[in-house]
Design brief:
Layout lengths: L2 E12 L2 E12 L3 E5 L6 H9 L6 E6 L9 H5 L1 E4 L11 H9 L8 H7 L15 H13 L5 E5 L7 H16 L3 E5 L3 H7 L2 E6 L2 E6 L12 E7 L2 E7 L2 H11 L8 E3 L3 H9 L7
């Protein structure tokens, strides 16, 4: 499988603070890869190094076959970046801005389609300085995807989106991934990572503490299940490695249907919170 992003021993310090402590990373071409972690964990620094916006102190990095520490104009044209902070205000309209940025690329996406996908069609003739914060965020996303990049970096892309705009954005990301675009997503919305990413890495204390598919991250799939039911006017629960057997036993006890029966395994959020609070992740 072709690798779009590769890092070995990636390290970055700010004075005495180790922001990134020897990260190894492989992101496959065409996959959506989510990087999760609390503020100060090192995820933003890691992504900025991959984007070529920050230098590293040690380690080897290859992004689309190029060292981002020595970027070329051609390499820049192959990647798209949606930053966490918006660009400066301008007097141009939304439509003018998107079309202007489209002119930077040899084979851009259709500007009208991109504007529609991020939910800005009704604002296409509005000046950028007149947009709300959420609308500015949607414009940032439009500018990141207009070039139809091979690799797209998304840093908290749906901050400020309403539910409908968020849904349209998810559809756009799935379409891009289906066309072979590699997508690196950092987000605080765990449901977004679970919905979009084929693999997830959790960064804490400047290193990756877990990596895998969302459904199996951190041993999630093999963790004990929680079986809950109602009995005697109370809510009861049992954690077990054999939920099927427990349900069969309860069915016999109740001679049929078990009142308010639920069987759950740890959610991605529960798994994430456990991983980022482990004692060994402290720098």
């Amino acid at each position: 499988m072709e690798t779009a992003v590769k890092a070995r021993g990636l390290t970055k310090r700010y004075g005495d603070v180790r922001a990134v402590g020897g990260i190894d990373l492989d992101i496959h071409a065409g996959e959506v890869f989510a990087i999760l972690g609390p503020n100060g964990a090192g995820k933003s620094t890691t992504v900025e190094i991959l984007e070529g916006h920050r230098t590293r102190d040690a380690g080897e990095v290859s992004v689309l076959g190029v060292d981002p520490g020595r970027p070329t104009r051609g390499w820049r044209a192959r990647i798209g970046i949606v930053l966490q902070t918006a660009n400066d205000m301008t007097e141009a309209t939304v439509g003018e801005t998107v079309r202007h940025f489209a002119g930077y690329y040899p084979a851009p996406r259709d500007p009208d389609e991109v504007i529609e996908r991020v939910g800005l069609t009704e604002n296409v003739n509005r000046r950028v300085r007149q947009l709300s914060g959420g609308q500015r965020r949607r414009l940032d996303v439009a500018l990141g995807v207009i070039g139809d990049p091979e690799l797209l970096f998304l840093d908290e892309p749906t901050t400020g989106f309403d539910p409908e705009a968020r849904r349209r954005f998810w559809e756009l990301i799935r379409d891009l991934a289906g066309q072979g675009t590699t997508i690196v997503l950092t987000t605080h919305y765990l449901d977004e990572a679970e919905a979009l990413a084929s693999r997830v890495a959790v960064v804490a204390g400047g290193r990756i503490v877990a990596e895998g598919e969302p459904a199996t991250l951190g041993g999630r799939a093999s963790a004990k299940a929680r079986v809950s039911w109602s009995e005697g006017g109370e809510r009861r629960a049992l954690e077990t490695e054999t939920p099927t057997g427990t349900v069969i036993e309860l069915t016999r006890r109740f001679d049929g249907e078990v009142p308010d029966l639920t069987v759950t395994r740890p959610t991605l959020e529960e798994t994430y919170l456990r991983l980022v609070t482990l004692p060994e992740v402290t720098p």
